[in-house]
C-alpha cells in the first residue's frame, strides 16, 4: 500500500507509452464491487493476486478461489525476478518489496486445505435444486421436504439426512400431499437418484458438520493484515455446478449473517468469484434475480464482490451495472462474438480522449489492462491503459510441504478436520422406523397371546421419536379411543421430534420457526 486508503493497482501510460501516473483503487469504494476480465493468459490471476495482496495489507480479509493452483503462491515470499523488477521500474514503484501473506487454505475435499462443509439445512432448497439441476416438480418436493424439516426440527445436516427424509416422504406421499401440496412418488424417486449422483460426484464431502463458520474467513492476522482464504478449486472445477453453488452459498451466508454497516471506511471482506461465468450460465431466471439482489444488497454489509471471468458478456447486465471497479485485460476480436465482447467491454468504460477504447482492448500486453475505479463521490474514473503492478508474493504455486506447514500453523488447524455425525434426520427417522417396526412386532405378539398386557398397543399408537415424556405415555395402557393403529401425521411426528434436545445448531433454532433468506439459506 502506497497511500493510506488507496490500493495500488499499477501505473497508467501516456499515448507514447511512457509512465503517466499511479492507478489506485480507493479502499472506501472496495465494497462497490469489481470485475476482472480478459482472455486466457492475459494476467487475470496475477491481477487478482495483486488486489488480494493490497486488500490484505490494508487489513481487509479476502476470500478467493484458486482454480489452477497458481494463486497459492500468495502465501510464499516473492522473488526478485527480472521481469518483475522491470515492471516495478516501468510504473515507478519505488517501494516494491517482496513478502508473503497470511493465508488460510480451504478445500471441499479436505486435501489441499481445511475442510469446508455446509449443512443441507443451511444450503436450503433453492440452491440445492440448482445444484441438482432439479425440475420444477422436483424443486416443489424439495421445498416441501425443507418445510417439514424446518417446521418440525428434523435437522438436515448431510446427504443421508435428506435421503432419509425423502424416503419417508415417498412412503407417506399421500398423507404429505394432503397437508403440504402434491408430492409425487416419481419426483421423490428422481430426487433420490439425483442425490446419489451428487454423492458420487463428491458432494458427500461437502455436506455435514462442522459447518464453516463465516467468522473464520473474516480473520485478521496478528500483524493487522487481513487473512486471505484460498479455496483449492482445481478438483472442485471438475464439478462446476458444485463450485458455483458453493460460492453462491458463501455469498448468501455472508449476506444473511453480517450486519448492515452502510459504506464503511474499508470493506469487511472482499470476495473474488473466479470463473464467474459458471454462476450465470444456464441459471434459471429466479436465481439470477436473487443473485443480482444479493450482490446489490451485500455492499451495505461491507462485502465487496469481484467477479473474474474471460468475457464481460458472461455477466448479466443487471449485475455488470453494479461492478464499480474494472480491470479489463486484453480480449481477442476475431469472431463476431468476440467483437461484440470487445464492444460491450469498451462501452462500459468512461472514454479517455487519449485513445480508442475498443482498439486498446485488443492491443493490451500481458499484465496490462484498461482500468477504471470509483473516485470522488463514487463516479467511475476515466479509463486508463495501465501496467498492473508486480505482486509481492510468489507468482505460481507453492509446494505441498509449504502448504502443509501453513495449514498446520493456521488459526483453524484441527477445527474442521474431522466429520461430526450427530443425531439428525437420518437417525431420528431410522429410530422412528425401528419403533414402528418393533411396535408392529409387539402387536402381533400381543394378538397371538391375548392374555398378555396390552400396553404394547399403546406404544404402537405412539410411534414417537423417543421423547421421554412420550415414552412414558406410551408405556401406559392406551387411552380410550386411541387403541389400535393410528398413524401419526408427518407434522405430528416432526413436532414430537422437535421436543428432543438435539444439540444441533439447526435444532436449537426450533421454537422460533426457521427463517430463510433471499437465496433460501437460513437466517440467524
Ligand atoms: N502484473 C504483472 N506483472 C508481471 N507479470 C505479469 C503480470 N501479470 C501477468 N504477468 C505474467 O503473465 C503470466 C500469465 O498471467 P496470469 O496467470 O495472471 O494469466 P491469466 O489471465 O490468469 O491466465 P489464465 O486465463 O490462463 O488463467 C504470469 O505468469 C506472469 O508471468
Ligand atoms: Mg488465471
Automatic annotation (TrEMBL):
Gene3D superfamilies: P-loop containing nucleotide triphosphate hydrolases (3.40.50.300)
Segments for region (Disordered): 441-485
Domain Helicase HerA-like C-terminal: 13-522
Pfam family name, one: HerA_C
The organism's place on the tree of life at top rank: Bacteria
InterPro entries, sorted: HerA_C, P-loop_NTPase, T4SS_component
Protein name per Swiss-Prot or TrEMBL: DNA helicase HerA-like ATPase
Source organism of this protein record: Neorhizobium huautlense
Amino acid at each position: 500500500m502506497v497511500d493510506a486508503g488507496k490500493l495500488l493497482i499499477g501505473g497508467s501510460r501516456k499515448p507514447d507509452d511512457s509512465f503517466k501516473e499511479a492507478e489506485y483503487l480507493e479502499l472506501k469504494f472496495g465494497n462497490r464491487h469489481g470485475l476482472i476480465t480478459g482472455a486466457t493468459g492475459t494476467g487475470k490471476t496475477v491481477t487478482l493476486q495483486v488486489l488480494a495482496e493490497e486488500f490484505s495489507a490494508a487489513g481487509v480479509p479476502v476470500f478467493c478461489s484458486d482454480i489452477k493452483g497458481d494463486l497459492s503462491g500468495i502465501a510464499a515470499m516473492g522473488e526478485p525476478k527480472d521481469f518483475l523488477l522491470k515492471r516495478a521500474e516501468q510504473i515507478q514503484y519505488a517501494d516494491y518489496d517482496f513478502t508473503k501473506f497470511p493465508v488460510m487454505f480451504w478445500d471441499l475435499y479436505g486435501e489441499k486445505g481445511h475442510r469446508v462443509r455446509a449443512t443441507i439445512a443451511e444450503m436450503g432448497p433453492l440452491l440445492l435444486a440448482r445444484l441438482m439441476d432439479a425440475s420444477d416438480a422436483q424443486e416443489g418436493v424439495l421445498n416441501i421436504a425443507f418445510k417439514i424439516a424446518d417446521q418440525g426440527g428434523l435437522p438436515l445436516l448431510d446427504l443421508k439426512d435428506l435421503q432419509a427424509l425423502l424416503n419417508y416422504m415417498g412412503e407417506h406421499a399421500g398423507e404429505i400431499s394432503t397437508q403440504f401440496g402434491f408430492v409425487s412418488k416419481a419426483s421423490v424417486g428422481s430426487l433420490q437418484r439425483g442425490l446419489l449422483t451428487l454423492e458420487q460426484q463428491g458432494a458427500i464431502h461437502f455436506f455435514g458438520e462442522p459447518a464453516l463458520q463465516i467468522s473464520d474467513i473474516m480473520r485478521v492476522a496478528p500483524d493487522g493484515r487481513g487473512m486471505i482464504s484460498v479455496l483449492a478449486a482445481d478438483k472442485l472445477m471438475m464439478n462446476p455446478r458444485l463450485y458455483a453453488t458453493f460460492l453462491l452459498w458463501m455469498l448468501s451466508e455472508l449476506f444473511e449473517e453480517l450486519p448492515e454497516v452502510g459504506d464503511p471506511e474499508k470493506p469487511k471482506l472482499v470476495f473474488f468469484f473466479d470463473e464467474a461465468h459458471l454462476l450465470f450460465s444456464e441459471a434459471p431466471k429466479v436465481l439470477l434475480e436473487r443473485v443480482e439482489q444479493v450482490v446489490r444488497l451485500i455492499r451495505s454489509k461491507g462485502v465487496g464482490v469481484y467477479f473474474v471471468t474471460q468475457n464481460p458478456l458472461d455477466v448479466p447486465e443487471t449485475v455488470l451495472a453494479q461492478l464499480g471497479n474494472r480491470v479489463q485485460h486484453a480480449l481477442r476480436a476475431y469472431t463476431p462474438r468476440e467483437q461484440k465482447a470487445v464492444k460491450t467491454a469498451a462501452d462500459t468504460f468512461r472514454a479517455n480522449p487519449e485513445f480508442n477504447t475498443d482498439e486498446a482492448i485488443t492491443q493490451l500486453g500481458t499484465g496490462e489492462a484498461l482500468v477504471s475505479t470509483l473516485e470522488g463521490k463514487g463516479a467511475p474514473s476515466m479509463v486508463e491503459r495501465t501496467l498492473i503492478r508486480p505482486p509481492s508474493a510468489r507468482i505460481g504455486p507453492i509446494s505441498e510441504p509449504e502448504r502443509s506447514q501453513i495449514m498446520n500453523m493456521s488459526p483453524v488447524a484441527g477445527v474442521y478436520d474431522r466429520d461430526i455425525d450427530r443425531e439428525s434426520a437420518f437417525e431420528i427417522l431410522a429410530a422412528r422406523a425401528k419403533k414402528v417396526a418393533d411396535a408392529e412386532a409387539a402387536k402381533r405378539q400381543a394378538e397371538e397371546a391375548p392374555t398378555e398386557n396390552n400396553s404394547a398397543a399403546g406404544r404402537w399408537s405412539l410411534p414417537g421419536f423417543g421423547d421421554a415424556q412420550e415414552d412414558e405415555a406410551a408405556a401406559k395402557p392406551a387411552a380410550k379411543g386411541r387403541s389400535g393403529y393410528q398413524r401419526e401425521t408427518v407434522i405430528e411426528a416432526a413436532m414430537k421430534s422437535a421436543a428432543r434436545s438435539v444439540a444441533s445448531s439447526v435444532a436449537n433454532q426450533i421454537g422460533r420457526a426457521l427463517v430463510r433468506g433471499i437465496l433460501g439459506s437460513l437466517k440467524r
